[in-house]
């Protein structure tokens, strides 16, 4: 009894707020709350989007993440934020555990590590334990189920043998892993360090380093997104991230009235509201770190983020701090002092990580170059075993990892590259895997961009930028319209569109004095130079005013403005400033004196886009990004824009009839389908050839799939993306091909698709619609489908699926994925009975 009393008293001084999140469900939170109550605690469960209770009443906040709105305020109030394991550890020790060891803060990057040590020297053991404890991890002297890592030098040690015999989920790593993590200040992948065959000891020096896709920066790789996002929440779960929020959309976003209305309606549908007064707002969305609204909202601790952050909230329907990802926060107009003279090149970063770093370089005010030359000042690389790194060192350039770039941006100052963290490259690791983990430093932001009114001396940089903006408001507004309509930004993650983006920034941000690359080389960051470049920028704005007027005029004609208006060869082309000579394409030669003007002329002479081309199954570009980049540029110069989204394509190129997601999705939009030979011939002849001479002909595949491309196209035109309207399809989580692929196919054809995780929620659009005629009397009204295979893990789901669907008064249909693929490819409905799966069929096939 005394033991129970002692336990009961354990949390009697604790009032704990338990924060629900995607990793901490309401059920789990209530279980935690009842354990706390049983032991004398006073818990409160908080679930978004309700208003957060008053922080002052709590002694602890329990959460698996720091992504909740009151985290910064809790930190300021010195209220510890702990993971649920804190409670278990406290109970097992019979005393309150140290909250720091259980913090969910990712800056304590080893907070998920529980380490035990094998046969390693005593000095190494002490250093590793000290490092792990300092960075949020825990040490256990014995091997237990709780351990995540065993540090050892050999697989034959007693502890290693114990791990293998008991088949424990413990990673056996060399001490080098901790050493590299602590040197970088980031948690890197353990795989190259894992026994029995650690890659760092086995791999040949010239063997390429594996690159890994980074999930952390998806939706956070640019401060200026070009398209509205697609929410990842299911159609039945409404957007609620804006519940109770009052959002102010700043005028400096430069978005059109149509997009503004769309964003406003999404916020209102999600339970929020929109205001134009900063005093009423809880959240400010703006583009630059300047102006009254920005400073006021920041000083009052309101959420301040940019359009990219707003879109991220819409996509994931989960609140996240705008400080968490560097490019989710408004950007400054001026460079980091000293960065304006830097020319930075990237190496060994791929995909979204590369796009993110290119945009980050532009945001610092430095120049991002596609190729490495001796004129460069820095090479930012993910590992240092490449020819580019060797060349950079030969030329005396600074070779650093991306941490230097991220931390300079976060603190908004030039940090010395003598810090060993910035020049450390673990042997078999591509540092692209830890891109995007640096957070903004709020104290630096406050000191530089929104100092409190009492501060006697505000920093000059942001103020100057603000004054400069006021001088050019009208011209900037006119220029923003051109940004909104510029079609040079494609939706690929390759390097080409980014170049277009940095060219635009010469117009958007004249205060950066980026007029021509040659001028920047000779600039010094002195106030005289800054003033001169501002004057030059203003003059440049006056000079291009006639072009802005022409743009407005051209915008009204049929077809709108594409790439700066009419081509040089157009007969009815409007000519402004007759005394200006506008040479034809043939007469244009490279000029050393005016590279920028030349680039603009060439850009204006690009033909309009006549083909939006989606490509699938094309092998020529695989593993050769440089060739892909050059070919796409050449195709664009011919009037062909390569797109990634089936919704945007007018033409589809493929080697044969395929069942890839791109091919199947595109069929719903009835594109012209050509052989990939068409791409090669256009590139070879450097001409825009007639697609009808290269139509795809693949009778064998058509026969195999029971469809014809011609009939599919006719059907798709009739269907208008509504083939599966009213259909509700579920998908087994481990389905071959992946849930995302099947969801995209169902979406493209107007149906609803969700993962099946043991729950069914049914709310078809047709039940909300008064117009039943849209549904053509589909026989599926009472049916719900599950895409499955005969794999044992899928069969286990079947009884639960049937039970749930029957409980709703609907008919369950468990079908092979071919049912969906055959319908999407033929653009005709198919009877599900031909594709149905059941236990009897499985038993027969096994016999």
Automatic annotation (TrEMBL):
SUPFAM superfamilies given in the database record: BRCT domain
InterPro entries: BRCT_dom, BRCT_dom_sf, CellCycle_DNARepair_Reg
Domain BRCT: 6-104, 104-195, 237-327, 339-422, 613-696
Organism domain of life: Eukaryota
SMART domains: BRCT
PROSITE patterns, alphabetized: BRCT
Chain intervals for the UniProt region annotation (Disordered): 448-538, 575-606
PANTHER family xrefs: REGULATOR OF TY1 TRANSPOSITION PROTEIN 107
Protein name: BRCT domain-containing protein
Organism: Aspergillus pseudoustus
Organism placement in taxonomy: Eukaryota, Fungi, Dikarya, Ascomycota, Pezizomycotina
């Amino acid at each position: 009894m005394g033991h129970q009393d002692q336990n009961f008293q354990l949390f009697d001084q604790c009032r704990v707020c338990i924060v629900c999140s995607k990793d901490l469900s309401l059920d789990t939170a209530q279980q935690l709350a009842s354990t706390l109550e049983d032991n004398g605690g006073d818990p409160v469960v908080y679930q978004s989007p309700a208003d957060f209770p008053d922080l002052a009443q709590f002694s602890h906040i329990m959460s698996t993440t720091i992504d909740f709105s009151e985290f910064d305020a809790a930190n300021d109030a010195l209220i510890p934020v702990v993971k649920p394991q804190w409670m278990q550890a406290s109970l097992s020790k019979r005393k309150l555990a140290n909250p720091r060891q259980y913090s969910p803060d990712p800056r304590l990057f080893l907070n998920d590590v529980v380490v035990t040590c094998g046969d390693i020297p005593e000095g190494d053991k002490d250093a590793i334990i000290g490092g792990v404890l300092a960075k949020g991890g825990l040490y256990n002297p014995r091997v237990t189920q709780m351990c995540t890592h065993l540090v050892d030098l050999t697989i034959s040690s007693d502890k290693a043998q114990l791990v293998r015999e008991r088949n424990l989920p413990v990673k056996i790593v060399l001490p080098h892993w901790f050493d590299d993590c602590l040197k970088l200040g980031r948690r890197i992948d353990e795989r190259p360090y894992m026994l029995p065959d650690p890659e760092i000891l086995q791999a040949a020096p010239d063997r390429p380093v594996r690159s890994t896709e980074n999930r952390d920066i998806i939706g956070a790789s640019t401060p200026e997104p070009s398209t509205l996002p697609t929410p990842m929440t299911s159609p039945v779960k409404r957007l609620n991230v804006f519940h109770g929020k009052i959002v102010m959309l700043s005028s400096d976003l430069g978005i059109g009235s149509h997009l503004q209305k769309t964003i406003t309606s999404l916020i209102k549908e999600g339970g929020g509201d929109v205001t134009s007064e900063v005093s009423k707002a809880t959240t400010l969305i703006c583009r630059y770190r300047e102006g009254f609204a920005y400073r006021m909202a920041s000083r009052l601790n309101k959420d301040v983020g940019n359009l990219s952050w707003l879109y991220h909230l819409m996509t994931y329907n989960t609140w996240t701090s705008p400080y968490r990802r560097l490019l989710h926060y408004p950007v400054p107009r001026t460079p980091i002092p000293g960065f304006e003279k830097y020319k930075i090149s990237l190496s060994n970063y791929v995909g979204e990580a590369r796009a993110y770093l290119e945009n980050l370089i532009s945001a610092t005010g430095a120049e991002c170059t596609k190729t490495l030359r001796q004129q460069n000042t820095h090479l930012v690389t993910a590992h240092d075993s490449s020819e580019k790194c060797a060349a950079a060192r030969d030329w005396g350039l600074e070779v650093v990892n991306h941490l230097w770039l991220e931390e300079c941006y976060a603190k908004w100052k030039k940090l010395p590259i003598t810090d060993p963290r910035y020049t450390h490259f673990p042997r078999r690791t591509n540092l692209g895997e830890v891109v995007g983990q640096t957070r903004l430093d709020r104290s630096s932001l406050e000191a530089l961009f929104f100092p409190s009114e009492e501060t006697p001396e505000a920093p000059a940089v942001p103020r100057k930028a603000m004054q400069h903006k006021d001088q050019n408001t009208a011209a900037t507004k006119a220029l923003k319209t051109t940004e909104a309509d510029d079609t040079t930004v494609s939706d690929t993650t390759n390097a080409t569109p980014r170049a277009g983006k940095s060219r635009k920034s010469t117009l958007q941000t004249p205060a950066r004095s980026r007029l021509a690359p040659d001028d920047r080389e000779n600039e010094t960051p002195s106030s005289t130079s800054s003033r001169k470049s501002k004057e030059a920028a203003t003059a440049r704005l006056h000079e291009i005013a006639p072009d802005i007027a022409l743009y407005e005029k051209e915008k009204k004609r049929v077809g709108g403005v594409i790439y700066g208006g009419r081509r040089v060869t157009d007969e009815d082309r409007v000519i402004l400033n007759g005394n200006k000579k506008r040479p034809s394409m043939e007469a244009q030669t490279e000029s050393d004196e005016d590279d920028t003007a030349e680039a603009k002329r060439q850009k204006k002479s690009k033909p309009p886009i006549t083909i939006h081309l989606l490509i699938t199954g094309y092998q020529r570009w695989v593993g050769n990004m440089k060739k892909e980049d050059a070919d796409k540029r050449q195709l664009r110069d011919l009037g062909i824009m390569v797109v990634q989204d089936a919704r945007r394509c007018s033409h589809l190129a493929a080697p044969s009839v395929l069942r890839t997601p791109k091919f199947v999705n595109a069929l719903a939009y009835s594109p012209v389908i050509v052989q990939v030979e068409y791409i090669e011939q256009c590139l070879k002849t450097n001409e825009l050839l007639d697609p009808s001479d290269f139509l795809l002909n693949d009778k064998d595949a058509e026969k195999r799939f029971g469809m014809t491309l011609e009939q599919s196209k006719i059907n798709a035109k009739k269907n208008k993306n509504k083939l599966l309207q009213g259909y509700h399809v579920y998908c087994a989580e481990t389905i071959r091909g992946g849930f995302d692929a099947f969801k995209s196919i169902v979406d493209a054809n107007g149906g609803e698709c969700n993962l099946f995780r043991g729950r069914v929620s049914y709310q078809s659009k047709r039940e909300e619609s008064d117009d039943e005629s849209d549904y053509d009397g589909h026989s599926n009204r009472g049916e719900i489908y599950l895409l499955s295979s005969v794999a044992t893990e899928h069969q286990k789901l079947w009884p639960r699926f049937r039970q749930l669907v029957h409980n709703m008064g609907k008919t369950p249909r468990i079908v092979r994925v071919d049912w969906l693929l055959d319908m999407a490819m033929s653009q005709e409905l198919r009877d599900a009975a031909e594709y149905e799966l059941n236990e009897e069929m499985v038993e027969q096939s096994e016999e």
